Amino acid sequence: MIFQLLDYTQQIPPFLPDNPFQSDGFLCLFRGCKHSKAYLATVMADEKLIVAQPIIIHRFIPFLPAALGSYCVANYPPHINHQFDNTTLYQAICFLLTKSCQYLHHKAFYIEFRHFNVHPDIPFDQIFASHKFDKIPWYNCVVDFQSPKQFVANLTRNRRNELRQALNSDATVSTNPTNQQWDEFYNVISAFYKKIHRPFPEKTLFHNLLLNRNIAIPAIISIENRVVGGAILLKSNTCGYTWHYYALKLHNQPNLTLLTIYKLILTLSDSGISRLDFMGAGRQNTHSGIRQFKLSLGGRLVDECRYRRRLIF
Predict the structure, then answer these.
(1) Which CATH number is correct for 2-137+305-310, 3.40.50.11540, 3.20.20.100, 3.40.630.30, 3.30.70.260?
(2) What is the CB neighbour count within 10 angstroms for residue 296?
(3) C-alpha of 69 from chain center
């Protein structure tokens, strides 16, 4: 077996991605970024791809050594070539984890794999435990809709009233923002992440998003020409993924986040897509206000887990 870490400058083995995070377009979003790097970790045998796992290294505290100021995340499980038998797949995933952790040692503080659920043939719990990963029970939230009308019908009564108020307000949502609007949204959302002490991608990534509409749908919320929020949606042929979204809470203004999500539902529906993946709804067995919000939009919970391992100490 051969292990490789590929970036956007290298030839990626041909395969059909399960989601946009596995695509070469996603890797290209990180072109020119100083503090974030995306790679596709692959395991091959006899020139055939067995496993492909996208990973991102974020440098969130630049003045610290890389091992202390960086972390690595895999947003979704690996692409798996089921033409191989389960024994080969098991060995390939173990090989990928071993090599990835060896490469990332002293390059990141920890690595986290997200959005795993029970697989009928591959014992992920056993594989990750044998590589010293901790399992974290998690929820995801997914909204299925046949049409925008059905999406509205599935909202709770309070959310329907909020949406009606938002649609009748002065707020507008555009999925074709100008560069200036996109910069203003970046300033709004990055300030929020800084306030809650959470890392956020650099501006270069945002500019690359506007250039890659094959997998990305940008959205901007404005009131009287003032940008007050927005969203980044990645998409496949069957699903939209809310990567980042945020809107200011303004006095005497409607629910702007709900308005943005509704606009994204309209855009997805126009493309023949009928599923919205919120990419997480919090740790299980803990209260989460954002989880309740997503459920009020007609979402359903999906039992998942994350696997995390420290790479130093």
Answers:
(1) 3.40.630.30
(2) 17
(3) 21
Give, for all 313 residues of the chain, the pLDDT tens digit: 999 988 888 888 888 888 898 888 888 888 888 888 899 999 999 889 999 999 999 887 877 787 788 899 999 999 999 999 999 999 999 999 999 999 998 889 999 999 998 777 899 999 999 999 999 999 999 999 999 999 999 999 999 999 999 999 999 999 999 989 999 999 999 998 888 888 788 889 888 888 777 888 989 999 988 999 999 899 998 999 998 888 888 767 788 999 999 999 999 999 999 999 999 999 999 999 999 999 999 999 999 999 999 987 6
Largest interatomic CA distance in the chain:
63
- Token look-up 């130093």 returns 312
Residue 140 in contact with residue 115, Cβ under 8 Å? yes
Domain 146-273, CATH: 3.40.630.30
Q: CB–CB of 233/217 below 8 Å?
A: yes
What residues does each domain of the chain span?
2-137+305-310, 146-273
